[in-house]
Specification:
It contains 14 helices and 16 strands. The chain is α+β, with helices and mostly antiparallel strands and 490 residues long. α10 (321-335) packs parallel to α14 and α13 packs antiparallel against α14. The radius of gyration is 24 Å and the shape is globular.
């Protein structure tokens, strides 16, 4: 069972608690894949055993469905070797899974190492897709196997963009998988510069990302424009270089960066503070860059997330209903005072995992012919799939809500986070043409605590201490009070 969090009691999904019990599901998958249960009379004849079942990701929608992604460790009892197999599953309300299973069987499928491409556990109303099969992403297998058309695309792009030819390509390595949304692989390769003597080679890393829809095409368009913009070419903003896009397969290729995310640094360290201030400059430069984004961030959409959170909270934590309703009412009322925000190019998913720290010795200047010295460290903005136009305070609110969430996880005082926010804002303000609006930033932070952090904790059934949701709500309440006090002083 997932520990450290209350599992929703949802009458429409009565088997949810079973699906979230890792030991129980290991036994069920053992029987499903290898037709034998532990301690049964057939157990001695079974060659493979599910040694471990780990839940990697949960996405829960109250009263409708739940997506659970499992990672299985499977051991060959003869060779003792252990391999992995991923299963993405959906739980449906009573009586709905059979038709869903039949529909899934009609789609193009790839046979996995064990079991079938699509399977059904009717007693749990669960439909199962064996990786690389996915309910929505049709090109996962192409991403993992690199068919000739993908190799040709990458080779031509490397020639055109890096003036080099590929000498060797290693097998793609899965690095991130969000069922029904995206799948990302790492691709190591060796290059040789064109018109150079044989033997002069270098190694690079590409990342390939498969999408379930055409959002990758928009990301590709905007990343190219951003990469070629003065702010990137002059070294004020750093992103991964876009390399190629395959529209039929919906696969985006980009250069890899070497380093680690800001999330990996201790929140209360001096190093983290220094890097966060550097990040403020990067975010400011992005915001001040005018990109023709098709996506827009509207205040009404932001308010809608609060409504969705309230509906889910009523099902999972009804004890918080009245308290949160009062807070949401106050936030909605104050939304009328947020008109007149500047228009900025937003990251759209700004949190510590999307702030990437590159170190000296790992850096490659955007313009290798400039002759400018390479900095000792820099912050790159990654995962640019949600670039949009809207209020810059929305990005800052998301980032600061993430800081408060991290502080709760790491037992860091909220006052420490408030100081980080102040220092970030002070640096940010030096690189944008508009003045700071702290009440608006506090408003977006409070709404992000509810609409993003609380909502995700509930929908993803995150592993956290039981009081986490209560603490996030309390922090949002304090930010709303701070707005009232600020307005009173003004």
């Amino acid at each position: 069972m997932l520990s450290g969090y209350e599992i929703p009691n949802d009458p429409s999904l009565p088997h949810l608690s079973t699906a979230l019990d890792e030991m129980e599901m290991a036994n069920r998958f053992q029987k499903l894949l290898f037709i034998a249960e532990p301690h049964s009379k057939n157990a001695a004849r079974v060659r493979h055993w599910v040694k471990r079942c780990q839940i990697e990701r949960v996405k829960y929608k109250a009263g409708q469905k739940c997506l659970v992604n499992y990672l299985l460790q499977i051991q060959d009892v003869q060779t003792r070797q252990i391999c992995q197999q991923r299963l993405s599953t959906r739980l449906f309300p009573e009586g709905e899974s059979r038709l869903r299973f039949q529909k899934a069987q009609s789609e193009p499928l790839v046979m996995p190492p064990f079991g079938q491409a699509v399977m059904h556990l009717p007693e749990l109303e669960m439909v199962i897709w064996s990786f690389p099969n996915d309910r929505k992403i049709g090109s996962v297998n192409s991403l993992m196997t690199l068919p000739p058309n993908q190799v040709a695309l990458v080779k031509q792009a490397i020639c055109d963009r890096l003036n080099a030819q590929i000498v060797n390509i290693e097998r793609p390595e899965l690095v991130h998988y969000v069922p029904e949304h995206t799948c990302t692989v790492r691709l190591q390769m060796t290059l040789q510069p064109l018109r150079q003597a044989a033997g002069q080679t270098r190694s690079i890393t590409l990342f390939g990302k498969a999408y379930y829809n055409d959002e990758g095409a928009e990301s590709w368009r905007l990343m190219q424009m951003l990469w070629e913009s003065p702010v990137c070419q002059q070294g004020q903003l750093h992103i991964a270089q876009p390399i190629a896009y395959a529209p039929n397969e919906r696969i985006l290729w980009q250069m890899g960066l070497t380093g680690r995310t800001l999330l990996s640094f201790a929140l209360d360290s001096a190093e983290f503070t220094h890097l966060l201030i550097n990040a403020a400059r990067s975010v400011a430069h992005l915001h001040a860059t005018q990109l023709p984004c098709k996506r827009t961030s509207q205040l009404v959409d932001w308010l809608e997330t609060l409504s969705h959170m309230q509906i889910l909270l009523a099902n999972v934590r009804p004890d918080l209903n009245e308290r949160v309703a009062i807070l949401v009412e106050q936030l909605v009322h104050r939304a009328n005072e947020l008109d007149g925000a500047p228009s900025a190019t937003l990251h759209g998913d700004l949190h510590l995992q999307n702030l990437f720290v590159e170190r000296a010795g790992q850096l490659v200047p955007n313009d290798v012919t400039s002759g400018d010295p390479v900095p000792t460290e820099r912050i790159a903005l990654i995962d640019l799939d949600n670039l949009s136009t809207g209020s810059p305070w929305r990005d800052l609110g998301s980032l600061f809500a993430g800081l408060y969430y991290r502080a709760l996880v790491d037992d860091v005082e909220a006052t420490y986070v408030a100081n980080l926010m102040d220092r970030f804002c002070a640096e940010y303000a030096q690189y944008t043409p508009w003045p700071l609006d702290r009440p608006a930033i506090d408003w977006y932070t409070a709404t992000a605590l509810l609409g993003e952090r609380v909502y995700r904790s509930l929908t993803r059934i995150k592993r956290a201490r039981p009081a986490m949701v209560d603490e996030l709500v309390a922090r949002a309440e304090k930010l709303d009070i701070r707005q009232i006090l600020t307005e009173a002083i003004q």
